Amino acid sequence: MTDFTTLPDLAVRTLGGSVTAASDESFEEKENLVNPWPPAFRPETFGPKGQEYDGWETRRRREPGHDWAVVRLGLPGVIRGVVIDTAWFKGNYPPHASVEACAVDGPAADLSGADWVEIVPKSPLKGDTAHAFPVDAERLFTHVRLNMFPDGGIARIRVHGDVVPDPAFLTGLTVDLAALENGARVLECSNMFYSSPDNMLFPGLARNQAEGWETARRREPGNEWALVRLAAPGTIRLAEIDTTNLKFNAPAEVSLTAPDGTTLLPRTPLQPDARHRFRIETPEVAHVRVNIYPDGGLARLRLWGHLSAEGERRLAERHRRLLR
Protein backbone atom coordinates (compact mmCIF):
# COMPACT_ATOMS: atom_id res chain seq x y z
CA MET A 1 0.00 0.00 0.00
CA THR A 2 1.27 3.49 -0.91
CA ASP A 3 2.28 5.63 2.07
CA PHE A 4 -0.64 8.05 2.35
CA THR A 5 1.46 10.52 4.34
CA THR A 6 3.19 11.53 1.08
CA LEU A 7 -0.14 13.05 -0.01
CA PRO A 8 -1.02 16.66 0.88
CA ASP A 9 -2.36 17.37 4.36
CA LEU A 10 -5.78 18.78 3.49
CA ALA A 11 -6.25 20.12 7.04
CA VAL A 12 -2.96 21.96 7.57
CA ARG A 13 -3.21 25.65 8.33
CA THR A 14 -0.85 26.51 5.47
CA LEU A 15 -3.49 25.28 3.02
CA GLY A 16 -6.33 27.06 4.80
CA GLY A 17 -7.39 24.43 7.32
CA SER A 18 -9.22 25.75 10.37
CA VAL A 19 -10.46 24.29 13.66
CA THR A 20 -13.91 25.84 13.80
CA ALA A 21 -15.30 24.39 17.05
CA ALA A 22 -14.39 22.24 20.04
CA SER A 23 -16.17 20.91 23.08
CA ASP A 24 -13.45 22.25 25.39
CA GLU A 25 -9.98 23.80 25.22
CA SER A 26 -9.36 24.60 28.86
CA PHE A 27 -5.61 23.87 28.79
CA GLU A 28 -4.48 24.34 25.16
CA GLU A 29 -6.15 25.88 22.12
CA LYS A 30 -7.86 23.79 19.46
CA GLU A 31 -6.09 25.76 16.69
CA ASN A 32 -2.81 24.00 17.51
CA LEU A 33 -4.16 20.81 15.92
CA VAL A 34 -3.50 22.08 12.38
CA ASN A 35 -0.19 23.89 12.91
CA PRO A 36 2.20 23.04 10.05
CA TRP A 37 5.35 22.52 12.14
CA PRO A 38 6.17 19.39 14.17
CA PRO A 39 4.93 19.57 17.77
CA ALA A 40 7.46 21.12 20.13
CA PHE A 41 7.86 20.91 23.89
CA ARG A 42 9.82 22.73 26.57
CA PRO A 43 9.67 21.19 30.05
CA GLU A 44 8.79 23.29 33.09
CA THR A 45 7.13 26.03 31.06
CA PHE A 46 4.19 26.66 33.35
CA GLY A 47 1.55 29.23 32.49
CA PRO A 48 -1.62 30.15 34.38
CA LYS A 49 -3.26 26.92 33.16
CA GLY A 50 -0.34 24.61 33.90
CA GLN A 51 2.40 23.02 31.77
CA GLU A 52 2.28 24.40 28.24
CA TYR A 53 1.89 22.00 25.30
CA ASP A 54 1.95 22.51 21.54
CA GLY A 55 -1.41 20.86 20.93
CA TRP A 56 -5.06 20.73 21.98
CA GLU A 57 -5.75 19.75 25.57
CA THR A 58 -9.06 19.59 27.42
CA ARG A 59 -9.85 19.58 31.12
CA ARG A 60 -10.28 16.37 33.09
CA ARG A 61 -13.85 15.35 32.31
CA ARG A 62 -15.97 14.61 35.40
CA GLU A 63 -19.24 13.93 33.57
CA PRO A 64 -20.32 11.39 30.91
CA GLY A 65 -19.43 11.99 27.29
CA HIS A 66 -16.28 12.80 25.34
CA ASP A 67 -14.46 15.77 23.83
CA TRP A 68 -14.36 16.65 20.14
CA ALA A 69 -13.04 19.22 17.66
CA VAL A 70 -14.29 20.10 14.17
CA VAL A 71 -11.78 20.89 11.42
CA ARG A 72 -12.75 22.58 8.16
CA LEU A 73 -10.39 21.26 5.52
CA GLY A 74 -8.41 23.90 3.69
CA LEU A 75 -8.75 21.87 0.49
CA PRO A 76 -11.75 19.56 0.03
CA GLY A 77 -10.87 16.12 -1.25
CA VAL A 78 -10.81 12.36 -0.91
CA ILE A 79 -9.24 11.38 2.42
CA ARG A 80 -6.73 8.52 2.15
CA GLY A 81 -5.49 8.49 5.71
CA VAL A 82 -5.44 10.33 9.04
CA VAL A 83 -2.58 10.78 11.50
CA ILE A 84 -3.48 11.44 15.14
CA ASP A 85 -0.33 12.57 16.91
CA THR A 86 -0.10 12.61 20.71
CA ALA A 87 3.49 13.96 20.68
CA TRP A 88 4.67 15.02 24.18
CA PHE A 89 1.37 14.04 25.80
CA LYS A 90 2.56 11.19 28.02
CA GLY A 91 0.36 11.22 31.13
CA ASN A 92 -2.55 13.19 29.72
CA TYR A 93 -3.34 11.64 26.32
CA PRO A 94 -6.78 10.15 25.53
CA PRO A 95 -6.86 6.33 25.52
CA HIS A 96 -9.09 6.24 22.42
CA ALA A 97 -10.03 8.43 19.44
CA SER A 98 -12.18 8.30 16.31
CA VAL A 99 -12.68 10.51 13.25
CA GLU A 100 -15.82 11.38 11.31
CA ALA A 101 -16.13 13.36 8.08
CA CYS A 102 -18.83 15.17 6.12
CA ALA A 103 -19.28 17.32 3.01
CA VAL A 104 -21.16 20.62 2.93
CA ASP A 105 -21.37 23.39 0.35
CA GLY A 106 -19.25 26.41 1.23
CA PRO A 107 -17.32 27.47 4.36
CA ALA A 108 -20.39 29.17 5.89
CA ALA A 109 -22.63 26.09 5.61
CA ASP A 110 -24.52 24.92 8.70
CA LEU A 111 -23.13 21.63 10.01
CA SER A 112 -26.14 20.87 12.22
CA GLY A 113 -27.74 18.75 9.52
CA ALA A 114 -24.53 17.32 8.07
CA ASP A 115 -24.27 13.63 7.24
CA TRP A 116 -21.25 12.55 9.31
CA VAL A 117 -19.52 9.35 8.22
CA GLU A 118 -17.10 7.47 10.46
CA ILE A 119 -13.77 7.18 8.61
CA VAL A 120 -11.60 6.09 11.56
CA PRO A 121 -13.39 3.87 14.10
CA LYS A 122 -12.83 4.26 17.83
CA SER A 123 -9.21 3.13 18.18
CA PRO A 124 -6.68 2.86 21.04
CA LEU A 125 -4.00 5.53 21.35
CA LYS A 126 -0.58 5.61 22.98
CA GLY A 127 1.13 8.59 24.51
CA ASP A 128 3.78 10.55 22.59
CA THR A 129 3.04 8.64 19.38
CA ALA A 130 1.94 9.43 15.81
CA HIS A 131 -0.86 7.00 14.93
CA ALA A 132 -1.51 6.44 11.20
CA PHE A 133 -4.97 5.25 10.16
CA PRO A 134 -5.68 4.41 6.48
CA VAL A 135 -9.09 5.54 5.25
CA ASP A 136 -11.20 3.77 2.63
CA ALA A 137 -13.97 6.19 1.64
CA GLU A 138 -14.12 7.11 -2.04
CA ARG A 139 -16.01 10.37 -1.71
CA LEU A 140 -15.39 14.07 -1.24
CA PHE A 141 -15.21 15.57 2.25
CA THR A 142 -14.96 19.17 3.45
CA HIS A 143 -14.84 18.72 7.26
CA VAL A 144 -13.62 16.20 9.83
CA ARG A 145 -14.57 15.76 13.47
CA LEU A 146 -11.91 14.42 15.83
CA ASN A 147 -13.36 12.63 18.85
CA MET A 148 -11.23 11.80 21.89
CA PHE A 149 -12.46 9.45 24.60
CA PRO A 150 -12.94 10.78 27.17
CA ASP A 151 -10.55 13.76 27.40
CA GLY A 152 -6.87 14.73 27.29
CA GLY A 153 -4.39 16.10 24.79
CA ILE A 154 -3.70 15.60 21.08
CA ALA A 155 -0.88 17.52 19.41
CA ARG A 156 -1.83 17.32 15.73
CA ILE A 157 -4.29 15.85 13.28
CA ARG A 158 -3.09 15.33 9.70
CA VAL A 159 -5.69 14.56 7.04
CA HIS A 160 -3.89 13.29 3.95
CA GLY A 161 -5.64 12.86 0.64
CA ASP A 162 -6.30 13.86 -2.96
CA VAL A 163 -7.52 17.40 -3.66
CA VAL A 164 -10.83 17.56 -5.52
CA PRO A 165 -11.43 21.10 -6.85
CA ASP A 166 -14.86 22.48 -7.66
CA PRO A 167 -14.95 22.75 -11.48
CA ALA A 168 -17.25 25.78 -11.20
CA PHE A 169 -14.19 27.87 -10.29
CA LEU A 170 -11.98 26.51 -13.08
CA THR A 171 -14.19 26.06 -16.15
CA GLY A 172 -13.97 28.84 -18.72
CA LEU A 173 -11.40 30.83 -16.71
CA THR A 174 -7.67 31.47 -16.83
CA VAL A 175 -6.36 29.33 -13.95
CA ASP A 176 -3.11 28.11 -12.44
CA LEU A 177 -2.88 24.60 -13.84
CA ALA A 178 -0.03 23.81 -11.41
CA ALA A 179 -1.83 24.88 -8.21
CA LEU A 180 -2.23 22.25 -5.51
CA GLU A 181 -5.62 23.73 -4.64
CA ASN A 182 -6.74 23.07 -8.21
CA GLY A 183 -5.69 19.43 -8.01
CA ALA A 184 -2.11 19.50 -9.34
CA ARG A 185 0.56 17.28 -7.74
CA VAL A 186 4.25 16.50 -8.06
CA LEU A 187 4.37 12.84 -9.05
CA GLU A 188 8.15 12.34 -9.11
CA CYS A 189 11.31 14.30 -8.45
CA SER A 190 15.04 13.65 -8.61
CA ASN A 191 15.82 15.02 -5.15
CA MET A 192 13.89 16.41 -2.16
CA PHE A 193 16.62 16.45 0.46
CA TYR A 194 15.59 19.67 2.23
CA SER A 195 11.90 20.03 1.37
CA SER A 196 9.06 18.56 -0.67
CA PRO A 197 8.55 19.66 -4.28
CA ASP A 198 4.81 19.88 -3.60
CA ASN A 199 5.65 23.07 -1.68
CA MET A 200 6.13 24.81 -5.05
CA LEU A 201 2.43 24.36 -5.72
CA PHE A 202 1.14 25.81 -2.43
CA PRO A 203 -1.02 28.95 -2.41
CA GLY A 204 0.38 32.33 -1.46
CA LEU A 205 3.99 33.40 -1.23
CA ALA A 206 6.74 31.40 0.45
CA ARG A 207 7.74 33.11 3.71
CA ASN A 208 11.17 31.48 3.82
CA GLN A 209 13.24 29.02 1.81
CA ALA A 210 11.85 26.04 3.74
CA GLU A 211 8.40 26.72 2.25
CA GLY A 212 9.61 25.94 -1.27
CA TRP A 213 11.37 22.98 -2.89
CA GLU A 214 15.10 22.65 -2.25
CA THR A 215 17.49 19.88 -3.29
CA ALA A 216 20.84 18.79 -1.92
CA ARG A 217 23.99 20.10 -3.61
CA ARG A 218 24.51 18.02 -6.75
CA ARG A 219 28.04 16.59 -7.04
CA GLU A 220 27.57 14.50 -10.19
CA PRO A 221 26.78 15.43 -13.81
CA GLY A 222 23.20 16.23 -14.80
CA ASN A 223 20.45 18.28 -13.19
CA GLU A 224 17.54 18.01 -10.78
CA TRP A 225 13.90 17.87 -11.89
CA ALA A 226 10.28 17.43 -10.78
CA LEU A 227 7.35 16.03 -12.75
CA VAL A 228 4.09 17.93 -12.15
CA ARG A 229 0.69 16.46 -12.97
CA LEU A 230 -1.49 19.43 -13.89
CA ALA A 231 -4.94 20.00 -12.45
CA ALA A 232 -6.28 18.71 -15.79
CA PRO A 233 -5.09 18.76 -19.40
CA GLY A 234 -4.80 22.26 -20.79
CA THR A 235 -2.68 24.86 -22.56
CA ILE A 236 -0.21 27.12 -20.74
CA ARG A 237 0.18 30.80 -21.59
CA LEU A 238 2.24 32.15 -18.68
CA ALA A 239 4.92 30.44 -16.60
CA GLU A 240 5.99 31.95 -13.29
CA ILE A 241 9.22 30.68 -11.73
CA ASP A 242 9.77 32.15 -8.26
CA THR A 243 13.09 31.95 -6.41
CA THR A 244 12.05 34.29 -3.56
CA ASN A 245 14.13 33.73 -0.38
CA LEU A 246 16.60 31.54 -2.26
CA LYS A 247 19.52 33.95 -2.27
CA PHE A 248 22.53 31.63 -2.41
CA ASN A 249 20.88 28.37 -3.49
CA ALA A 250 18.72 29.31 -6.48
CA PRO A 251 19.26 27.30 -9.69
CA ALA A 252 21.39 28.88 -12.38
CA GLU A 253 18.83 27.99 -15.09
CA VAL A 254 15.42 26.42 -15.58
CA SER A 255 13.50 24.76 -18.41
CA LEU A 256 10.04 23.25 -18.84
CA THR A 257 9.36 20.20 -20.97
CA ALA A 258 6.48 17.86 -21.72
CA PRO A 259 6.93 14.16 -20.86
CA ASP A 260 7.59 13.39 -24.53
CA GLY A 261 10.50 15.84 -24.53
CA THR A 262 8.71 18.74 -26.21
CA THR A 263 10.24 22.03 -25.05
CA LEU A 264 7.72 24.34 -23.40
CA LEU A 265 10.24 26.84 -21.99
CA PRO A 266 13.83 26.59 -23.23
CA ARG A 267 16.74 26.57 -20.80
CA THR A 268 16.63 30.06 -19.30
CA PRO A 269 18.85 31.85 -16.72
CA LEU A 270 17.37 32.61 -13.28
CA GLN A 271 18.16 35.27 -10.72
CA PRO A 272 18.24 34.56 -6.96
CA ASP A 273 15.41 35.85 -4.75
CA ALA A 274 13.26 36.97 -7.68
CA ARG A 275 9.98 36.22 -9.44
CA HIS A 276 10.40 35.40 -13.14
CA ARG A 277 7.48 35.47 -15.61
CA PHE A 278 7.57 34.05 -19.13
CA ARG A 279 4.85 34.17 -21.79
CA ILE A 280 4.74 30.82 -23.55
CA GLU A 281 2.48 29.01 -26.02
CA THR A 282 2.17 25.28 -25.40
CA PRO A 283 0.26 22.45 -26.97
CA GLU A 284 -2.25 20.65 -24.78
CA VAL A 285 -0.36 18.99 -21.92
CA ALA A 286 -1.34 17.03 -18.83
CA HIS A 287 2.12 16.89 -17.21
CA VAL A 288 5.07 19.28 -17.09
CA ARG A 289 8.66 18.47 -16.13
CA VAL A 290 10.46 21.30 -14.32
CA ASN A 291 14.22 21.06 -14.87
CA ILE A 292 16.61 23.09 -12.70
CA TYR A 293 20.31 23.38 -13.50
CA PRO A 294 22.23 22.00 -11.78
CA ASP A 295 20.41 22.04 -8.42
CA GLY A 296 18.95 24.42 -5.83
CA GLY A 297 15.42 25.42 -5.05
CA LEU A 298 12.24 27.05 -6.27
CA ALA A 299 9.81 28.87 -3.99
CA ARG A 300 6.77 28.65 -6.26
CA LEU A 301 5.76 27.43 -9.70
CA ARG A 302 2.72 28.92 -11.44
CA LEU A 303 1.52 27.72 -14.85
CA TRP A 304 -1.36 29.94 -15.96
CA GLY A 305 -3.58 28.81 -18.80
CA HIS A 306 -6.86 27.24 -19.81
CA LEU A 307 -8.33 23.80 -19.37
CA SER A 308 -9.02 21.88 -22.54
CA ALA A 309 -12.56 20.68 -23.25
CA GLU A 310 -11.47 17.20 -22.22
CA GLY A 311 -9.90 18.60 -19.05
CA GLU A 312 -13.12 20.36 -18.11
CA ARG A 313 -15.11 17.20 -18.75
CA ARG A 314 -12.82 15.09 -16.56
CA LEU A 315 -12.96 17.53 -13.64
CA ALA A 316 -16.75 17.83 -13.78
CA GLU A 317 -17.22 14.07 -14.01
CA ARG A 318 -14.90 13.37 -11.07
CA HIS A 319 -16.48 16.04 -8.88
CA ARG A 320 -19.98 14.74 -9.62
CA ARG A 321 -18.96 11.14 -8.88
CA LEU A 322 -17.33 11.94 -5.53
CA LEU A 323 -19.92 14.40 -4.22
CA ARG A 324 -22.62 12.14 -2.82
Give an account of the 3D structure.
The two termini are 26 Å apart. This protein has one helix spanning 309-322, and strands at 18-22, 46-47, 50-51, 56-57, 67-85, 96-102, 117-124, 130-134, 141-149, 153-154, 156-163, 175-176, 185-189, 213-214, 224-242, 253-257, 263-269, 275-279, 285-293, 297-298, 300-307. The chain is mainly beta and 324 residues long. The chain contains one helix and 21 strands. The mean pLDDT is 95. It is globular, with a radius of gyration of 21 Å. It folds into two domains: 4-163, Galactose-binding domain-like (Jelly Rolls), CATH 2.60.120; 167-310, Jelly Rolls. Strand 2 and strand 3 (50-51) form a beta hairpin. The strands form five sheets. Strands 12, 13, 15, 16, 17, 18, 19 and 21 form an eight-stranded antiparallel beta sheet that branches. Strands 1, 5, 6, 7, 8, 9 and 11 form a seven-stranded antiparallel beta sheet that branches.
